[in-house]
């Protein structure tokens, strides 16, 4: 128990330090793992099992929200293979170029081993990318869907490689997996009968681990791929979003074990650290390649850059590939430690870039040539705001209520902005006038400024940082209309007012006062009725 307590305290402390440094906590968890190993602390029993569970639930959650048709898009599969080829070429070039510098691992490496390492470094981290998208609530945005599609395609490529490199094909029983299709129908019928939240969570966990992970491992395939596939098979159920939310906290806790386990792979030598640091040189080239490929596929620079920053990192899946490659003699076992450090450092680099993504994108838009709107994909073309007088940004519960009040009660011509594609489509089907767009996009606010008669903007996005960025863009572009926003805490309300918001509603305080007022009114009415 004392070892467990030590792990918890060190992980918590490192996560808090990372948060104070404006970095994702996962960077702290990685540092905690390396620190514990360097200090000679023994490995916590069951840590790798917890880590595997976290990754399995992560991929199961992706499957619940994945539209398989997205994998057939050229900007997904073609981008994946084009970037893979470029990454291998540039990776081999870098490794060959630094070989004369005296790195022992590269002294005797032939071209085949270098190509294998470059192949491993071409993968992006599913865990890191989904964490970034989850934190932004951007899983269903255009760039989020493309990034997830690329990650899935990379996983498929890696599974094929692992199958070939092991020297044997999956069990003949692999063909029995087709029975998952009628099995999914049965699971849907069982799920219809479940009403308890606890039983729903247990149902999802059992499905992810048994017909998902265990069954695929039993026939010689990767269990994580199985979790992804059964997630896809269950994703069409009406309760799938609720299940994903139920498993979210469990997945987040288990992924802490995953990041700790990466740091426990070994104590790197000075040479290992130096080589891992040099490998970070590949990241900006890979990022630029993603931007170029996505732009050629008809995406705006902003969309291409956000997807690129999400995918520009090294993959924990690559560590699995290198372990298998080392066991079959395709590469030196020492690469495991080097690539573990390189992966950790790439998370740190990617965390910094993603934290400043909106500002970097605005800078890039000033430098890169203007794109022809006709050559852009329809989902990424300029938006026609029409004659809307009021704009509601963010169509969650608060945004929806605001829209209905302005439109139905006040008679305003209202336009709603929602960045989640699925929610936008659902609202359109209900009759709301909705445009799918990102309110942290300077290009979008440029179009708002040109809107005829736009006089009111209401910011109801759930994240305070997004509302602040939208306020800054409105002020920068000289918007002269009225701006209202929501806040959860007093300090958020004060910050929004300082940025120029004319009205800020503190949701918790307002809900409390409204409830108290209604309770007193109802109580008075009941007392009057009783007295009469």
SSE blueprint:
Blueprint: H1 2-20, H2 25-38, H3 47-65, H4 74-98, H5 104-107, H6 111-121, H7 126-136, H8 142-165, H9 180-193, H10 197-218, H11 223-234, H12 240-263, H13 270-278, H14 282-296, H15 301-311, H16 316-327, H17 335-355, H18 357-367, E1 390-393, H19 397-409, E2 414-418, H20 421-429, E3 434-436, H21 442-449, E4 456-459, H22 464-476, E5 482-487, H23 490-498, E6 503-506, H24 507-531
Parallel strand pairs: 1-2, 1-4, 2-3, 4-5, 5-6
Transmembrane segments: 47-64, 76-99, 111-130, 142-164, 170-187, 199-216, 228-248, 253-270, 276-299, 311-331, 337-357
Membrane topology: Multi-pass membrane protein
GO biological process, one term: potassium ion transport
Describe the structure in your own words.
With 532 residues, the chain is mainly α. The protein has 2 domains: 47-367, Na+/H+ antiporter like fold (Up-down Bundle); 382-529, NAD(P)-binding Rossmann-like Domain (Rossmann fold, 3-Layer(aba) Sandwich), CATH 3.40.50. 67% of the residues lie in helices and 5% in strands. It is built from 24 helices and 6 strands. The protein has helices at 2-20, 25-38, 47-65, 74-98, 104-107, 111-121, 126-136, 142-165, 180-193, 197-218, 223-234, 240-263, 270-278, 282-296, 301-311, 316-327, 335-355, 357-367, 397-409, 421-429, 442-449, 464-476, 490-498, 507-531; strands at 390-393, 414-418, 434-436, 456-459, 482-487, 503-506. A 6-stranded parallel β-sheet has the order 3-2-1-4-5-6, sandwiched between helices. Strand 4 (456-459), helix 22 and strand 5 form a beta-alpha-beta unit. Helix 3 (47-65) runs parallel beside helix 11, helix 14 (282-296) packs antiparallel against helix 15 and helix 16 (316-327) packs antiparallel against helix 17 (335-355). The N and C termini lie far apart (66 Å). The mean pLDDT is 83. It is found in: Membrane. Keywords: Membrane, Transmembrane, Transmembrane helix, Transport. GO terms for molecular function: antiporter activity. It is a multi-pass membrane protein. This is Transporter (CPA2 family).
């Amino acid at each position: 128990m004392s070892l467990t307590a030590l792990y918890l305290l060190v992980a918590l402390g490192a996560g808090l330090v990372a948060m104070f440094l404006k970095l994702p906590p996962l960077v702290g968890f990685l540092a905690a793992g390396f620190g514990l190993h360097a200090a000679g602390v023994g490995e916590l029993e069951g840590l790798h099992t917890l880590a595997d569970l976290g990754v399995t639930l992560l991929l199961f959650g992706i499957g619940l929200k994945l539209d398989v048709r997205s994998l057939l898009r050229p900007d997904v599969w073609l981008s994946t293979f084009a970037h893979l080829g470029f990454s291998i070429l540039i990776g081999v070039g870098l490794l060959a170029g630094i070989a004369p510098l005296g790195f022992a691992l590269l002294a005797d490496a032939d071209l085949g081993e270098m190509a294998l390492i470059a192949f491993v470094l071409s993968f992006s981290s599913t865990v890191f990318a989904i964490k970034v998208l989850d934190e932004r609530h951007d899983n269903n945005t255009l760039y989020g869907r493309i990034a997830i599609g690329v990650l899935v395609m990379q996983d498929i490529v890696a599974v094929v490689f692992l199958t070939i490199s092991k020297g044997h094909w999956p069990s003949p029983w692999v063909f029995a997996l087709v029975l998952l299709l009628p099995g999914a129908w049965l699971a849907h019928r069982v799920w219809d009968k479940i009403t308890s939240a606890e039983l729903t969570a247990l149902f999802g966990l059992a499905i992810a681990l048994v017909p998902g992970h265990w069954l695929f491992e039993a026939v010689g395939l990767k269990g994580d791929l199985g979790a992804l596939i059964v997630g896809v098979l269950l994703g069409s159920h009406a309760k799938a979003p609720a299940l994903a939310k139920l498993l979210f906290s469990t997945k987040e806790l288990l992924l802490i074990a995953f990041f700790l386990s990466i740091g426990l792979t070994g104590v790197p030598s000075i040479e290992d650290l130096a080589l891992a640091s040099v490998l970070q040189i590949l990241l900006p080239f890979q990022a630029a390649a993603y931007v170029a490929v996505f732009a050629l596929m008809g995406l705006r620079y902003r969309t291409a850059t956000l997807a690129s920053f999400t995918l520009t990192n090294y993959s924990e899946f690559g560590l699995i590939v290198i372990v298998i490659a080392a066991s079959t003699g395709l590469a030196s076992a020492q690469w495991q430690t080097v690539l573990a450090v390189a992966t950790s450092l790439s998370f740190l680099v990617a965390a910094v870039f993603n934290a400043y993504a909106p500002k970097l994108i605005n800078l890039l838009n000033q430098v890169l040539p203007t794109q022809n709107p006709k050559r852009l994909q329809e989902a990424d073309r300029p938006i026609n705001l029409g004659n809307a007088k009021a704009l509601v940004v963010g169509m969650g519960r608060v945004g929806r209520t605001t829209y209905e009040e302005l439109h139905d009660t006040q008679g305003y011509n209202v336009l709603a902005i929602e960045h989640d594609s699925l929610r936008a489509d659902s609202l359109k089907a209900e009759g709301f006038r909705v445009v799918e767009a990102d309110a942290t996009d300077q290009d979008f606010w440029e179009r708002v400024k040109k809107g005829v008669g736009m006089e009111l903007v209401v910011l109801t996005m759930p994240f305070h940082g997004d509302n602040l960025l939208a306020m800054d863009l409105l002020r920068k572009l000289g918007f002269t209309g009225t701006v209202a926003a929501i806040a959860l805490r007093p300090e958020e309300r004060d910050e929004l007012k300082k940025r120029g918001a004319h009205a800020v509603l503190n949701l918790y305080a307002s809900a409390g006062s409204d409830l108290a007022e209604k309770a007193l009114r109802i109580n008075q009415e009941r007392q009057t009725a009783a007295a009469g």
